[in-house]
């Protein structure tokens, strides 16, 4: 019995391509979350604080929670 593996034009099989796609998707989600974190901090202390210190503090608190969530999202489905 032969085992047939479909390969793309670069010689990679479907399972490897799927793993690469999952890694790319996790990296993209991580970068979006960390980008959101940076934007929240920058806006909170350079713009929002002039209008409301409370809002700036709340934005900072939300931004402080994002990095651990980003790590969990990035490592979710990690192939071992």
From TrEMBL:
Annotated keywords: Membrane, Transmembrane, Transmembrane helix
Origin superkingdom: Bacteria
InterPro entries named among the record's database cross-references: DUF3099 (IPR021449)
Presence of keyword Transmembrane: yes
Transmembrane intervals: 30-47, 53-74
Entries under Pfam families matching the protein: DUF3099 (PF11298)
Protein name (Swiss-Prot/TrEMBL): DUF3099 domain-containing protein
Annotated source species: Nocardioides yefusunii
């Amino acid at each position: 019995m032969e085992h047939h593996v479909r390969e793309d034009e670069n010689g990679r099989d479907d399972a490897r391509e799927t793993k690469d796609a999952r890694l790319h998707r996790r990296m993209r989600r991580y970068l979006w979350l960390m980008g959101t974190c940076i934007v929240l901090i920058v806006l909170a202390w350079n713009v929002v604080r002039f209008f409301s210190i409370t809002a700036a503090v709340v934005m900072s608190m939300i931004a402080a929670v994002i990095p651990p969530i980003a790590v969990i999202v990035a490592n979710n489905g990690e192939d071992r």
